Amino acid sequence: MKIAIGNDHTGVEMKNAIVEYLEDNGYEVINIGTDTPESVDYPDYGFKVGELVVNKTADLGIVICGTGVGISIAANKVKGIRAALCNETTVAKLVREHNNANVLALGARLLANHKALWIVQEFLDTQFDAGRHAKRVTKLDNY
Ligand code: RB5
């Protein structure tokens, strides 16, 4: 499975921990940066990860900023993206099952790295339930 990952300057350390974890576990990672502490604008990274998922270069995306909010808003501007901010593994499971979320957003200033890894694994391990959820997700995509 191929995962696109992008972040602003607040998320470099968390991103590095996630990339190492994913590569150690057999995932292919497309890291679009940023990779330095120099201040950047989170929308640029959210848009880019969203585009990589929508054009199927990646299967799923992960975006990180200080709260996870700004970069999730950015990713959600890309048509076809359903980015979900998750601070708990339960949420990560539900956003895959119910919303078919295709981008996971994380807040680097709010989460410890080890907890972020649990959330990432839950997100990647969980499949869309389809069924009654499918028509709702189609409504999102058609808007
Ligand atoms: C950067 O200071 C911060 O605003 C950004 O990382 C993010 O939290 C925005 O939503």
- Beta-strand portion reads 15-25%
The total tally of domains equals 1
Mean pLDDT: 98
What is the helix content?
40-55%
List the strand order in the largest sheet: 2-1-3-5-4
DSSP summary, beta strand count: 5
Gap between N and C termini: 28 Å
**Superfamily at the CATH H level?**
Sugar-phosphate isomerase, RpiB/LacA/LacB
Write up what this structure looks like.
The protein has a five-stranded parallel β-sheet, with helices on both faces. The chain has six helices and five strands; from the N terminus they run βαβαβαβαβαα. It has one domain: 3-Layer(aba) Sandwich (Ribose 5-phosphate Isomerase B, Chain: A). The model has no long low-confidence stretch (mean pLDDT 98). It has helices spanning 12-24, 42-54, 69-76, 89-97, 113-125, 134-142, and strands at residues 2-7, 28-31, 60-65, 83-85, 103-107. The protein is 45% helix and 17% strand. Strand 1 (2-7), helix 1 and strand 2 (28-31) form a beta-alpha-beta unit. D-ribose is lined by residues 8, 10, 42, 65-67, 69-70. The active site is at 65 (proton acceptor), 98 (proton donor). It comes from Spiroplasma mirum ATCC 29335. D-ribulose 5-phosphate binds at residues 8-9, 66-70, 99, 109, 132, 136.
Task: Give the helix/strand layout.
Blueprint: E1 2-7, H1 12-24, E2 28-31, H2 42-54, E3 60-65, H3 69-76, E4 83-85, H4 89-97, E5 103-107, H5 113-125, H6 134-142
Parallel strand pairs: 1-2, 1-3, 3-5, 4-5
Helix pairs in contact: 1-5, 2-3, 4-5
Bound molecules: D-ribose.
